[in-house]
Amino acid sequence: MACPDGVRELSSEKPASEGVVPELPEEEVPPPPPPEPEEEAPPAEEEIVEEYEEEELVPEERPRPRRKKHYGIFIVLVVVLVILLVWTLLSPKVMPQTGDTYITSPAYANLGNYTGDRDIWAGKMTWGLAVSGPESVARNQSFDIMVLITKVYEKPGNSWLRGTSISVQNISLFLDDGTLLATTHDGTDRGFGVSANLTLSFAQRDTYTIYVYAKFLVYEMMRIGFIPLESVEITEAYLDVGIQVS
Question: What pTM was computed for the model?
Fold first, then answer.
């Protein structure tokens, strides 16, 4: 029977949904996860910094220091040895001991003689002074008087010391009133002693009493080198014989 317009016709058929299992749609496969964004490379400056820091952490292999050669010490030793050698070679010869040979000799001590002792740390020494010359001269006549210094005796203070020698510093002749007659600062090494010649003359006739002043420097010779030891003075060594002037 036809339904009037506007009225829905009922059907006796069961809905298709009853007793029928509806078809399920196929499970959807989840899409793959989006790719992780790639890490951006650090700027070039950071890379340089990192590399620099890594290089600092790695110890550098340093070359082994070369062993220093002690040339300086060797040179100093050579210089010192040369100085000691020259110092020794330039040292004066040791004056020999002559005893009283020259202080009693009529050739070297006819006008007079003198001896003096020294006892110091370097040893014991006896020095001799011998004076020779004419005993009579003419007025205004020039003549020489020789003063000879010798070593009569010596005993060094120890085995390191070899002995002494001398050099003349001053030898002068005076009258007994202090008048200077002649002076010299030179001496001649005669091997057995040191001598000095002094020239003088007298204008008036008389017998003159003379004394000798002597000053000499003593050198001490050692096994290595030498040293100036002391100055020795001999004052007022009067002559035994007066010089007659006619």
Answer: 0.69
